[in-house]
Design brief:
five-stranded mixed β-sheet, 160 residues, alpha/beta, Glutaredoxin, two-stranded antiparallel ribbon, globular
Length: 160
């Protein structure tokens, strides 16, 4: 079953890179008590994700914060080392927190995974964006396959 606006985020473990190395992040604690814009991409360093999706959130970080967003998070079914390198390459440091969903546990729990085996990518997360307010999904925008519109920073900003 796919998650919907009004639902509570399921418990899952993501990973972020710190100066001391990889650190586990539990969704229930991470999203508690604040308003977070989270977006998911099928893969770090892939064309649309690298040219449009992540850069859009980097560029709109201040505008999103001005609308009451406490933190902006990017996730993908990639390991923490790849997500960390991608964030650095995109200039996301200090603007977008990179949380790796290395085994796809989070997107599976959301019901937003898909089979990208035809592209040699295995199971991945769909392209989507959401606003999570104290652990509850306030807005959810899931792209149709091959699309990039409703999960963009501009669209999310317009919804706030």
């Amino acid at each position: 079953m796919t998650i919907a606006a009004g639902d509570t985020l399921p418990p899952a473990t993501l990973t972020r890179m710190t100066a001391a190395g990889p650190e586990k992040v539990e969704t229930q604690a991470f999203f508690a008590g604040r308003r977070v814009a989270l977006f998911s991409v099928p893969g770090a360093f892939t064309p649309t994700c690298s040219v449009r999706h992540l850069p859009g959130f980097v560029e709109q970080a201040d505008a999103l914060r001005a609308k009451g967003i406490d933190e902006i998070v990017a996730t993908a079914v990639n390991d923490v080392f790849v997500l960390d390198a991608w964030g650095k390459a995109a200039g996301a440091e200090g603007k977008v927190t990179m949380l790796a969903d290395g085994n796809g546990e989070f997107v599976r729990a959301l019901g937003l995974d898909f089979d990208a085996s035809a592209f040699g990518m295995g199971r991945r997360g769909q392209r989507f964006a959401m606003v999570v307010n104290d652990g509850v999904i306030e807005h959810l925008f899931v792209e149709a396959p091959g699309e990039y519109r409703v999960s963009s920073a501009a669209h999310l900003l317009g919804a706030l």
